Request: fold
Amino acid sequence: MKLFLDTADLVIIQKYAAWGLVDGVTTNPSLIAKEGMDLEKRVKEIASIIHGPISAEVLSTEAKDMIEEGRRYAKWASNICIKCPMTPNGLLAAQTLSKEGIAVNVTLVFSAAQALLAAKAGAAFVSPFVGRVDDAGQDGMELISEIIEIYKNYQFKTEIIVASIRSPRQVALSAIMGAHVCTIPPDIYGKLFRHPLTDQGIKKFLDDWSKAKKK
Reply:
């Protein structure tokens, strides 16, 4: 399973990229705005660090404008993936861009039916938001299971990006289920490394070694 970072923070991206553990990055207007950066400048900076897919989201709501934005974004770097919303206009844009050879990530997906439409529109990626589904009183990971089954039934090539991740356990469950990608906020990404028993084990090894040396 590929691991993406869900951030536009260049320092964090450089940190994890140095470990060789980042396969791609997802951004959105909120993340870019949080950094106080120009969209094009920041996306180009990220693309110079990460060679996997970099999702950049369109800001328009009309299909024609989304297509124009997508074509413009795609020229920024060879690994740019255009994020289109799960709307009728978003799917129209996704179809056009996909046919032109531009990778599209259909985002804000909250049902298996929406994921089916995204795949039929030719999306390279689909982003179901498991955390927000959980917030609405439904089971986000069950949604991932449903999408995986549908895609297997019909051999869709669309890759599933599990988004709105809230815990390391959701990352592990996504891998168990066979999702293609998890896009993970930096705070959750950092927690993937940690377990209290690991810390206890290291401390014990070091304590035992220190005692042995004193003897």
User: Anything to note?
Assistant: The beta strands are 2-6, 24-26, 54-57, 80-85, 104-109, 125-128, 159-162, 181-184. The chain has eleven helices and eight strands. The two ends are 47 Å apart (CA to CA). The domain at 2-214 is CATH 3.20.20.70 (TIM Barrel).
